[in-house]
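stuck on this:

***
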Amino acid sequence: MSLKHRLKAKDKSKHRFGLVAVVFFLLTLGLWARAFWIQIWWAPEIKARFSNHYFVEKKVQGYRGKILDRNGVVLAQSVQTFSVFARPYEVKSASSVAKQLARILELDSKEVLEKLQKKNSFVWIKRKISDAKAAQIKKIFLPESGIYLTTEFTRVYPQGHLLGQVLGFTNIDGEGLEGLEKSFDKVLQGKEKQFVAFQDGKGRLIKYTFLSPLLAGKDLVLTIDTRVQAFAEDILEKSVQKFQARHGQLIVVEVDNGEVLALANYPFFNPNLFYLSTPQERRNRAALDLFEPGSTAKPFLLAAALEKKVVKPKSIYFCEQGKWKLDNIVIEDTHPYGWLPVNKILRYSSNIGAGKIALELGAENYYRFLAEFGFKDKVDIPLPGLSESLLRPPYKWNRVDLASAAFGQGWATTGLHLVQAYLAIARKGEFVPLKLLRSPTVEQEKGRRIFSVQTGKQLLDMLWEVVNQEGTGKLSKLEEVELGGKTGTAQKADLKQGGYKEGVYTSSFVGLLPARNPKYVVFLLLDEPRKGHYGGVVAGPGVKEMSLRLLSVDHSLLPSTTVPAKTKHVFSQEIKKEVVWKNRLPDLRGQSVRRAMDVLISQGLIPQLKGQGLVVRGQKPAPGVELKKNMQVELLLGES
């Protein structure tokens, strides 16, 4: 090769080397620029992305407190359940995933697809699903699919409709909307806490701990006895249906302390299915509905008249043979009576006799006593929206108004007000407020005397006569123990046109058990019964049956230690015949939660409830295990 050619080849090599050097330099410069860009310029964003992928913010909601009866029976509790959510940006085949989710969760696939196509970082697919559906989700969808399960609390009411209107219910977020759930929402509600958890590349959480017990809400312990409540609801349902009434209420109160043992409303309301109910079904009528008390008001008049020395039990009044014209208004009795002493005016429920006593007593005195009985204020129990009595001031009463008020016309009250007033009579003149809550304790008015013990004894003697001396309450007479009480039959006011509706009544009866030294007050009211309307006929038998049920659980009321076979039979009906103990744990599977609870509590065992549903589908220990004192029993709940 010539020199010229060698020089040209050398020049080409230099050019190639230079070109490679330039390319290498540019590549190095690019890498440095990229590194600078990533490490300096993009660093905050990358750090944020990394944190979002490996560190997730979790929110923990503490367990909502339970609502328990006086014996520890669970009336409301929260159980863990699964909810499904998605991170749409992680979902690769939205259409396919939507179809699968819709099939499992029984949803519309188009609606699910719309959620998966949103640009949100988080969307709920369906909240609070069953364990079976959650298992299917786990089986089909891996963590990196963008479909996730999380645990939440759902509120369940193991006793079904028992005490439903009083308990109320919560929404899907666990916030109390009605009843005690609303009144004590802040007490029951668990605290919320946020924390950061670490997850791996597939989105699986690395083990973490948090102090969940410290976040739990407080429990409520009620004065309610589920046995008495169950009896009350059973009797009330039968009474409403037998006399074809619109609705009814039945209240049982313990005299010694004013504690409410039963507060029943019919038609029933099941808070587990609140979304299927109407506002009327959810209405706690015993606390909210106003009605004219009718002749159940007469004992309050006599308490005032006896205490003021206006009358004595044997003072006599002419009852006008059943018709009395007062200031151009005719007041009638159901029977034509002549001269009647005060005790028989109450025994036979004479409106005319009561009206004449009221005129002697005077409007001021009668009104002041009604206020002392608690009719001027709301009943002091922790329920939302309690009604006040409708009681006009005495200066607005004329003579007819005063006479009518004596037998419970022209003013209105609630069932709770009426029971609270009779509680004062049962306590021989000492007024104490009703109590519905044992824990947490709430400050209430202390007891105060509103009339003397002597007046109280006289009044109780008269109320004994109403039932046991062929009075208006004679159908409620008991053989086992003496029952006292007062009937009430009130025509319903026509709020639209004025006056009273023809043939439309509220029928009521207030019972005192035992009559002369009461331990229980029992009140039953039926609204607009179509088969009969007199309180003694319509409401009296229900109070009698409720009294028999009380005898079945409180043998101290009986005159001897021997429990009559009839009384034992009443309670034995409440436990299924096939449940045989023989010191062994029975098979509770397939029974309602309420029935299983009754069986276990009767043996002094308070079970733990797991899962959701109204039927027992499993139990621990297994059936047949020997019963031991304080043994732990767990019931697994399900739908069937």
Q: What stands out?
A: The mean pLDDT is 83.
